[in-house]
Fold this sequence. Notes:
Elements: E1 2-7, H1 12-23, E2 27-32, H2 36-49, E3 53-57, H3 65-75, E4 79-85, H4 100-126, E5 131-136, H5 149-168, E6 174-179, H6 188-196, H7 199-204, H8 208-220, E7 225-226, H9 230-241, H10 244-254
Parallel strand pairs: 1-2, 1-4, 2-3, 4-5, 5-6, 6-7
Helix pairs in contact: 1-2, 1-8, 3-4, 4-5
Amino acid sequence: MQYTLITGASMGIGKALAEECAKEGMHLLLVALPGPELDQVCQDLVARYGIQAHPFAIDLTLEDAPRKVYDWSQTNGYEVNILINNAGFGTGGLFENTPLATYINMVRLNNQALVEMTYHFLPELKRHNNAHLLCLSSMEATLPLPYKAVYTGTKNFIYSFCLAIREELRPSTVRVSILCPGPVLTNPDGLKRIESQGGKGQILMTMPEKVAKIAVKKMLQNKAIIIPGALPIAIVRVLNLLPILWRMRILERVFRPYRDM
């Protein structure tokens, strides 16, 4: 039996992706931090869609955690043909105002855990005739944002990493896609950051369910870069046409409300 493995699956985009995959009839392996939310998501999806869903609670920032996820799947005979690296988090504000430990955890989760998960599961994915790797980046991946320097740096890494291995894996059965959403309402902190931008932030805001629906559809169609919504696509294209100094000055003005967060 084949499974789709999703990290960060207990809330936000990860939870919405799990539901969208369940609607497609996929059996699920859901990975997230320990807590009742993960078990509840599994129980709800099994009850609603009649699929199998197995939880694995772990902090992916801990040493060798991705390897433990892989060992768990192998020990139980779960054949993973779709891997969705969704787990991640971000912060806003002046670079020096956030504790270094927060940045280290951000890089470990957003980048190191993603690379380790991909590395461990890639041989398993390649054993299947139809396999997918979907990684969560951001529309900000190609827009270095003042006051979100480390976060956008991690998302740029994911973007570059996935484009590169997509080409490496082109002769194989593994198809790689990058999900690059704009602002998504996933938690209270995210809401505060969106509200700090006033009307322009709310215009761009998307709900996790809409992002997940587009993401799963485009992933199965082997779309390389998935940016949900016409407005985020237009903004990215226009800003990337500008000289870098102009672009950075505009972005600093737009994201200045994040400075004191």
